[in-house]
Amino acid sequence: MLEILKRKARSFVYYRTPTGEALTKVYDFFHHFKYSFKESRISDKDHLRYYLTKHYHIIEKGLALPEPRLGFGQPKVRDVIEKAKAYEVEYGDDELTSSIRKTLLAYQEFNKKNNFDLPSDLKLLLNSFIGCAAPTGIGGLKQVCKETASPINLAEFSNFAKSRVSVRDFAPEPVSEALIYASVEVAQSAPSVCNRQGWKVYCHTDKLKINEILSYQNGNSGFTDVIDKLIIVAADGKAFTKYESNQVFIDGGLFSMNLMLAIHAAGLGACPLNTCYPSFLEKKVKMVASVAASDRLIMMIAVGNIKDEYSVACSARNPVDDILKFF
Questions:
Q1: Tens of pLDDT along 8-46?
Q2: In the prediction, which pLDDT does 2 show?
Q3: Which of 43, 93, 163, 297 has its CA 20 to 30 A from that of 219?
Q4: CB–CB of 205/290 below 8 Å?
Q5: Full 3-state SS string of 295-319
Q6: 268-274 and 170-171: which strand pairing?
Q7: Residue 39: what pLDDT?
Q8: Could you tell me the domains of the chain?
Q9: Is residue 60 a contact partner of residue 101, using CB atoms and an 8 Å limit?
């Protein structure tokens, strides 16, 4: 315990110095520079998957516009087909390339429906690529009806969202891993830049490992021992490209909020724990927690079953007028 306190004291002093903060910002830059993908140079499978997801989703978004331009995005379509074919040669066809085929089929049908004649070589390219395998994936467009767009109204969501609280007093019964799995599946509905979904979730279940990881986190004092599962939400730096160094935290934050709401809906208690580390400590935590080097830490979430009755902080909210301005 004394060594843990000394370590926290050293890291706290370091973090509070201008030099420590400056070095952490330098680390932010070099991590993004090292792991982000360059559009003109795709270096590995992960980069290629994120590149393809970004660019086929651009075609999807084009089809979803109020008035899509006929024949739009032809260079993009050619590029996606070329790189998808290269991907399949190297790694085989999978759910990604199936979704690409489904999207390109929707693109092809959109132009046919509107009597737009694509260039003959592009039509051959589309027919050849789409015909290589059945486009069974999820891609293209889906129709949504206003009446059923939302299964609940604002008042119902207000009651649910406002009932979520940070729980620090958990019941001793272990949390079902199936509930964690189901909650993560729900959380995947969060939006992300160009649908790249660069989220990663590391769920620790071993008490000794949880305690070791939390020894580097300064917001769990007093309830560490009652935490049953420790979730670490991270975001893969490989999912992002130039000018997107902050997007890793935006996407990771959107996913994290979705995950906490899903955990709440599953009848579990959760408490978000910050990962505001200086650079040297983030590296250490990732090593201890088996988090990939390319990932950035977003937050930890302490999870447990809830008691029949328990106390939580009131956590007053600021008036809406303090944060909302109409122009």
A1: 545 555 566 788 888 888 899 999 999 999 888 887 999
A2: 46
A3: 163
A4: no
A5: EEEEEEEEEEEECCCCCCCCCCCCC
A6: unpaired
A7: 86
A8: 45-131 (no CATH), 160-306 (3.40.109.10)
A9: no
CA 80, 76, 134, 43: dihedral to nearest 10 degrees?
10
* Residue 165 pLDDT: 97
Q: Take residue 13 and report the two structure tokens written for it.
A: 């002093």
Residues of the chain with pLDDT under 50: 2, 5-6, 9
**CA proximity to 266, closest of 178, 199, 207, 206:** 178
Please give the Cα distance from 153 to 157 (Å, whole number). Answer: 6
What is the model's pLDDT at position 18? 81
For the record, the structure tokens of 234 come out as 């991270």
248 exposure class (CB count in 10 Å sphere: 0-12, 13-18, 19+): buried
Q: Please name every residue paired with 232 in a beta bridge, in sequence order, or none if there are none.
A: 202, 300
Residue 27 CA to residue 34 CA, distance in Å, equals: 10
pTM, to two decimals: 0.91
Contacts of 78 (CB under 8 A, 6+ apart): 122, 125
For position 3, what pLDDT does the model report? Answer: 57
Cα separation, 77 vs 108, in Å, equals 10
Instruction: Give CA–CA dist 141/234, Å, rounded.
Output: 29
